[in-house]
């Protein structure tokens, strides 16, 4: 493990993830626990015993990878994608978009194009997304302008 050993619940979580990743059936898993510590359940183990099991599972091929970086695809950085992001963030600033994240934007793009992220859309799809965002922005700004006029 790294310099800092995770707490007991985190070690148990890692061990269960390893069991799944290594495709261990319950009988094999419990046998391995007993072989390593003399106990057949993680809940009965001390932290040091959990570390022993965890290290053994790593020796069997368990890979610990940060969940956020696993399978991460680089963001699209072409001019149209930057424009789409800019419009999305403007809509967020106007209060029309609650979640300014890349994931939320990807969901919007998917609803508009059927593609799951900016890096997968064609130039034509990107142009269509830009136009829908510009029209949305215009509607929001018009509504806010009308509200300001009504309040005076």
Overview of the structural elements:
With about 150 residues, the chain is mainly α. The chain folds into two domains: about 10-60; about 80-150, no CATH class. It is about 60% helix and about 0% strand. It is built from six helices and no strands. It has helices spanning about 10-20, 25-35, 45-60, 80-95, 100-115, 125-150. The longest helix has 29 residues, at about 125-150. The N and C termini lie far apart (about 65 Å). The mean pLDDT is about 85.
Any chance you could write out the topology, listing elements then pairs?
Layout: H1 8-21, H2 26-37, H3 47-59, H4 79-93, H5 102-113, H6 123-151
User: What is the number of strand segments?
Assistant: 0
The rounded distance between the terminal residues' Cα atoms is 64 Å
Gyration radius, to the nearest Å? 25 Å
Q: How confident overall, as mean pLDDT? A: 86
Order of helices and strands: HHHHHH
Strand fraction: under 5%
> Describe the biggest sheet?
none
DSSP summary: helix tally: 6
- Poorly predicted regions are none
Which structural class matches the secondary elements?
A: mainly alpha
**Secondary structure: helix percent:** 55-70%
Number of domains: 2
Shape: elongated
